[in-house]
């Protein structure tokens, strides 16, 4: 069984809805095992977080068609029973060490899946409850009963108001089965989260009774049972109006919300208590509107402690929906009131935490993107907009790619509005867009961006060359990793996108970058070259403008001259020269900067970067260089004219060749490290803060402390002195999450990549990583970033093992303090990282090392924990298997060993290591080797191709040596595996199919080329041909769906190989099965598409083959006899 790549959700997902269809098509006589229902696979996928879309894809379910799926229902029930069994066998107490529920994630995930599939009517609630009842009847599974009732409560409380009571009554049967006690259950300890599960059954009764009251003609005819009497009285007492309610550290308010969320009379008080905790006095008191030009972090006011994740987890989905609705309503009212009031930090943090719950998607992320952001924007509530964008950048996890691309297109249209030409907001819009672009997963780029191909303008920035360059780099990385960059330029899906980029922001790339681009992108930029600007001319123009500045006396003339549209964008060059020569800035300059505006200043920044590189490249060095760098640092830190992140991004993305490229990276190194300002901020921020924001209650205090120590001003220093209120362009907006260190991270990602392209600057890169690598502690996707870097720059890094180790150490080492040992790298690799350089690179791991790595993935996928427990909702990966796969790929790519050596060892894990693999698990091991090889760069595949070539060229196949066995028996995996026969042929077939099944569609297109150029020329015997048929046959259905032309290419190969064998052999023993396959290909895939090529070949074959293939070639029997 091949386990789908859940973590990639690639289109090569198995479509189980077609299994039935295949059985009825009268196909080839498949092994009965292959036609069995794949329920285990479905259950495995259902168990994974974030797998809803894949389940729907596998079962062919569509939201708009309300189709009940019995198989899905059965598997959901199966998962509930498994969870009950697990609770029964749990050696831990029912409660975890921190008071959370044992098997917490299992039950959380189950409730999420049930809600989704029942809500869209793919499953039926009463049927599921009855099936659970029938399976539990007669079994003593009681320990998990409260958790089960908690799961059912989630659905009941959210849907009972819209559905008849009869739908929910089967739950009472479950109650009778699972709660046989005669005496009342005691009130649980309400200071522990577990109490919300222990009282879930009582909450269900309360909802049912309320529904019976409100639904005419229905009655439950049962009061609340004696067993639950004490629970019920406790809740009744708490809910009384005279009981004071305020949010303490216990769970009483959560209990009330869960019990009374369908009873408005009782529900409003506990919900108000929750909302008050995070809103404080904001609801009814007018606060101070925002002041301009003060410490931005201090602008926020109101409560700062958010609701904890344990409180949010203990609320039912129905209660969470009410809470998120209250928050969104408050934010919208505040935005529309034009009061300019800042939101309470606790509210913003709580809102971001609520967005991790996939069950509330419509009110959650969907509402955020399609309702909240547009409303805030229309209301011109720029402070609130800024906060929401910051929240998206620093607090959101696992947002589906279509929402991220939708937000990107919003941001591009937002950037064009006059009001966003405000320094701080403009910076925020651009840095959010940069994060969205660089954060797109390689497998997401093509499917998501191609949705916009009719309107490519929405994905492309109208004027930010940096964002468009970042998009090109993301395209390049995606094409490289998915293997889709080798097609022709005319046929590429993104040609219009590239044309739009070149229309909006024409630019070129340096040769060292083009060499790393996939062929299709490299070709595009070579064909669409842009004339290079003469840097000598820039210098002349700056000198000229500086003379103009010195010679003009009238302030209005000066302002008019330098800020009129159409003036060459050289004003930053001028300011730099002014500070360099006079150590001050003329007050008039601030007025000109204000006139130019934040958006137009970007063009000045680009010219400034080119000018700097020219100046440095032609400098005499020494003291002059120091003075030049100090002047730039003054512009950043003293005068606040540009921010370090914008300047470094712009420098890193300019097109510089040869010596100038090296000078450019030298400037970046000096800017980041020579002055202490940036280093100090990074060290302080990293030392005092943790990226695990969901575990914190005091983020805002730490955030304030950092901003007090290092206030960030978004207005040039002189403007603050000149104006009392400050012009609106520089109005300060409240900052909740961001700072210069976090803004710099996506820029640093790009900087590291640019350094890797130029070997002479590698030493500088190592120095940067040493001083600033600690920032990766706050990277939202550190493993993915490393994976992409090692994959994309594999050729550049192949002969630099110490640099690879340095990268791994910088990125993963930064998380040392907050992650448990063994969270990513194996013990053997950790030892390698501690070795001295010369000793280190001599390490060549043995087969045992690779067996352990594969075993770790196999066991993780089978449910054995190998990594420390983690909250997957806030992790970069959605599940343990995805985490295991990518940390292993990073480790394999970072070994000081050549790719083909690594790949050969991986193949040997099965080919030689099968003796230590439990016999029943061999499929899982083969599956994992396939997963790994498919996720590694293409150069690792050469080992697979060589091994296949060796196998098919082995003496045993050229002259069949197994007289008592047919090739069909020798190539059959089950026969050779179970009978302990020679397995090299069948194992190699299995490994090849595992790799090709998991490979992306771009990667697998190299396979027909390999068959034609390498395999076909060595085939001379009938057994070799049959082996080739075994290799090719299972790939045809996938090729037919994704790359139909490949089916034709492979079919032609088969006919040509048949002709070679026909001419080389005097007797053929297996003509019938070979011809059966050729007929199968004709009728299932190609029809008469290749009639002409095939007919010529068939006419050259021996009469016995012509006779068998005459219906494909349309040959008459008479013609065969006369030929």
UniProtKB/TrEMBL annotation:
InterPro entries recorded for this chain? Mediator_Med23
Q: Which GO terms describe its cellular component?
A: mediator complex; transcription regulator complex
Alphabetical keyword list: Nucleus, Transcription, Transcription regulation
Q: Does the keyword field hold Transcription regulation?
A: yes
UniProt record, GO biological process: positive regulation of gene expression; regulation of transcription by RNA polymerase II
Q: Where does this one sit in the cell?
A: Nucleus
Q: Which Pfam families match?
A: Med23
Q: Which family does it belong to?
A: Belongs to the Mediator complex subunit 23 family.
> Which named protein is this?
Mediator of RNA polymerase II transcription subunit 23
The organism is Pogonomyrmex barbatus
